[in-house]
């Protein structure tokens, strides 16, 4: 099957970094974050309530400073960190250096939350260490103890990183460390070459050693086209095989949908999306995107994704887009091809 170019239109915003205090007067949560800023825990949290910390605003860094966030409540549904905006989208959330224990969902991320990063955390004795309904999430360098599950519409991985492992510098992506997991094949970059399967997601770059063995020196993001505001992301195959996914280097915007708090599917797609797309990640992106073809042959491939498609001629991209076709037939492919990790050509369109 052809590989397709994926373009995402995003709005960039600066992360506010100020010292901030949580609101501790909520009846359901131990603490609530209502204002942008950096929040650093000074002690362990043992919450007698069904919620630990609620985040309902953008531009937040929650740094656990290696403290515990522990549930001490017997409710059927409990949430360690609840990224749950109240009727409005929020973005740019980072959770790091925290240890989560005894929650139903250690971290919950609603589909109205965008650009969420969770790293260098530890999860023990939770039902779900992650319960996420968005595809705009980076989850990496975390330590996962046994007998926990995860639900996520995006595979669990980092953006592209420059890091040192075993005394050698690499540029690659990293996943997470799972106690009790030993893959059969390894790669020099310090990850298992196979796919680690969880109940409702996958980790494509499961770590061979614990996270402290990977020293990050740089996080790489692609350049933004200043004229169109288009962020050039990676190419991935439209296939249900997780090993063929390539994580995009930045989040993409999804259409608003309705989710449930009980772990149900909660996701709706445009009615013309092909039933042949098994991957939730890809189906969700195609549902939010315009599918643009270059010629009659490419039109046939485009129609395998959805019924409503767009000819590239005289068209201007103004949102998420899937570009079908090589650089000779599709002007958008020609314009952006040299900025992709895996450039395509008409002679080599991919699998």
From TrEMBL:
Compositionally skewed regions (Low complexity) per UniProt: 253-262
Region entry Disordered, spans: 250-270
Coiled coil: none
Protein name: S-layer protein C-terminal domain-containing protein
Organism the protein comes from: Methanococcus maripaludis (Methanococcus deltae)
Lineage of the organism: Archaea, Methanobacteriati, Methanobacteriota, Methanomada group, Methanococci
């Amino acid at each position: 099957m052809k590989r397709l170019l994926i373009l995402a239109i995003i709005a960039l915003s600066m992360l506010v970094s100020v010292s901030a205090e949580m609101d501790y007067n909520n009846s359901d949560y131990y603490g609530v974050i209502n204002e942008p800023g950096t929040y650093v825990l000074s002690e362990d949290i043992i919450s007698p309530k069904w919620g630990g910390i609620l985040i309902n605003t953008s531009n937040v860094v929650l740094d656990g400073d290696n403290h515990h966030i522990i549930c001490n409540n017997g409710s059927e549904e409990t949430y360690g960190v609840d990224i749950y905006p109240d009727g409005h989208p929020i973005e740019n959330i980072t959770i790091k250096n925290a240890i989560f224990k005894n929650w139903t969902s250690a971290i919950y991320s609603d589909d109205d939350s965008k650009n969420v990063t969770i790293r260098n955390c530890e999860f023990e004795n939770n039902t779900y260490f992650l319960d996420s309904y968005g595809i705009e999430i980076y989850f990496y360098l975390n330590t996962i103890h046994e007998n926990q599950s995860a639900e996520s519409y995006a595979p669990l991985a980092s953006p592209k990183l420059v890091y040192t492992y075993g005394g050698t510098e690499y540029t690659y992506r990293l996943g997470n460390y799972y106690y009790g997991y030993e893959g059969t094949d390894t790669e020099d970059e310090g990850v298992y070459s196979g796919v680690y399967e969880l109940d409702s997601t996958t980790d494509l770059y499961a770590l061979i050693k614990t996270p402290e063995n990977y020293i990050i020196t740089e996080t790489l993001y692609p350049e933004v086209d200043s004229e169109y505001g288009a962020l050039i992301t990676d190419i991935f195959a439209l296939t249900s095989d997780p090993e063929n996914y390539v994580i995009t280097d930045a989040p993409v915007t999804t259409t608003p949908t309705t989710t449930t708090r009980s772990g149900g599917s909660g996701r709706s797609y445009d009615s013309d999306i092909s039933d042949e797309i098994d991957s939730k990640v890809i189906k969700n992106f195609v549902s939010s995107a315009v599918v643009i073809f270059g010629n009659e042959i490419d039109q046939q491939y485009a129609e395998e994704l959805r019924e409503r498609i767009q000819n590239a001629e005289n068209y201007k991209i103004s949102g998420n887009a899937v570009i079908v076709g090589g650089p000779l037939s599709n002007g958008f492919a020609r314009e952006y091809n040299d900025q992709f990790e895996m450039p395509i050509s008409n002679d080599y369109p991919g699998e």
